[in-house]
């Protein structure tokens, strides 16, 4: 393919403008174009322009001593909290005006040069860069906004479970503040001004972890011979860090097991299912879980029920607790 045709394709592909002509100066003279005194920069290369951008972002992340996956996990939790607050608390100005951070590049305050295609090795190149002064102002503004949001959230009142959910959301905001303070410290001396704020946010994150021990859950299951499923449910809750008791919990998980038998010459087959409901002392339904299981069979009735109940136990460990934790914001 000729260079003229490559130029045309580069100009029209995806309606983006690509540098496909002479090699940009930043490829060989990055320090002159983006001096370290003013910029953080990293060059990425790939078979496509998006691959090159991703490689460049990984280079920037190394500067901040954090992996891309950690930053993405932080953004996911932060955006989930912000989206939820926009739906739940429009009247709370700090929360309803909070803007989602769309990407890791936006989180870091990063920009990209136009991608350049090297027709000799058939690779794309792009430079990701952060203007230190511009990014420092971005981090400081975001710290201030998120602190206001955090303080607003912590004023919310409610029962222990609601407070726990609030603490979990607050911990996500606190972690974003911490990341901005640490990032600011990488850019300038301004990060030292936030020592008390950093201690404050870390205390919130610690409180969110210890608050779980204040939640007491009890369990009562119908059609549960010898309390087998009740014991398993309490055990699963305890392994996840909750306080689980047989009776008089602050929150009660009530459940019912259904089993339908089928008898054939080959043996007995059981269609089983479970329904669980979490309620407050006032009787308010807070969470529910329902699951029907595949038919299980054995040569005799006792063995068939043993296998069927084993499936229920496995599901409590693998699926119920996952949905339960998600409900609580974990």
SSE topology sketch:
Blueprint: H1 3-12, H2 25-28, H3 30-33, E1 39-46, H4 49-63, H5 68-88, H6 93-96, H7 104-108, E2 111-112, E3 116-118, E4 123-131, H8 132-154, H9 160-187, H10 195-210, E5 216-222, H11 228-239, E6 243-245, E7 251-264, E8 267-280, E9 285-292, E10 296-298, H12 301-328
Parallel strand pairs: 5-6, 5-7
Antiparallel strand pairs: 1-4, 2-4, 3-4, 7-8, 8-9, 8-10
The oligomeric status of these chains comes to single chain
Low-confidence stretches: 1-17, 89-96
The proportion of residues forming helix, as a percent range, comes to 40-55%
**Largest sheet at a glance?**
6 strands, mixed
Task: Summarize the entry for a quick read.
With 330 residues, this protein is an alpha+beta fold. The protein has helices at 3-12, 25-28, 30-33, 49-63, 68-88, 93-96, 104-108, 132-154, 160-187, 195-210, 228-239, 301-328, and strands at residues 39-46, 111-112, 116-118, 123-131, 216-222, 243-245, 251-264, 267-280, 285-292, 296-298.
